[in-house]
Design brief:
Keywords: Transferase. By secondary structure, this protein is α+β, with helices and mostly antiparallel strands. The protein contains 9 helices and 4 strands. The chain has 2 domains: 80 residues, Glutaredoxin, CATH 3.40.30.10; 112 residues, Glutathione S-transferase Yfyf (Class Pi), Chain A, domain 2 (Up-down Bundle). Helix 1 packs parallel to helix 3.
């Protein structure tokens, strides 16, 4: 199995999202650290591969791909036996429904809260805007009410099998707790699903940051 090159920062949430999927599927990869402090992500060489100057992107034997969810879908499609993205039309539609829910109903508020409470201090050395945090947590709480109903009906958000849509929720969900919020454990069905996800070996493998992983 060829080794994929993962260009990103070992502590960046989106880099860890991709690394988690690679670990789930036991795909060997080499982390190529992108130096934010020196502006490497804005260099001409980097922008040639990732025109938005964001992380991560992958190089799979010359095939360049950016955007974390697209990368994860590609990896899952390359190794379809995992079942992380079903191919049967109705099952795939339910998967896409769940994936869209993560992108439109979960990620926007979570992203803002994590930026304010964790990433702002980490990368910019500035304090959180409490008003933004409060407003976004209120929005997220209502969204999680819907998640709790969904998860009362089946084990995962797209049914009884783990899929990419579930894994898309990490690594940002655990960073809510890092920032001081226990919102992911307030609703019983959400809490049960969340605790199961963050106990997976693929997530725990990179608690100290993403590292090159060529053997499992």
């Amino acid at each position: 199995m060829a080794t994929i090159k993962l260009y990103g920062s070992k502590h960046a949430p989106c880099t860890r999202r991709v690394a988690t999927i690679l670990h789930e599927l036991k795909v060997p990869f080499e982390l190529v650290e992108v130096n934010f402090g020196e502006g490497e992500h804005q260099s001409p060489a980097y922008l040639e591969k990732q025109p938005f100057g964001q992380i991560p992107y992958i190089d799979d034997q010359g095939f360049i791909l950016y955007e974390t969810r697209a990368i994860c879908r590609y990896i899952a499609a390359k190794y379809p036996a995992s079942g992380l993205v079903p191919t049967e039309p109705k099952a795939n539609a339910i998967f896409e429904q769940a994936a869209c829910a993560e992108l439109t109903n979960f990620d926007p508020s979570v992203n803002k809260v994590v930026f304010e409470t964790v990433l702002k201090l980490m990368f910019h050395g500035t304090a959180a805007d409490a008003a933004v945090v409060e407003a976004q947590l209120a929005i997220l709480e209502k969204k999680l009410d819907a998640y709790d109903v969904i998860l009362s009906k089946h084990r995962y958000i797209a049914g009884e099998s783990l899929m990419l849509a579930d894994l898309f929720h990490i690594p940002y969900a655990p960073l809510l707790a890092t920032g001081g919020s226990d919102i992911m454990t307030q609703k019983p069905n959400v809490a049960k699903s969340y605790k199961e996800l963050i106990a997976r070996p693929s997530w725990l493998a990179y608690e100290g940051g993403v590292t090159t992983t060529t053997t499992y």
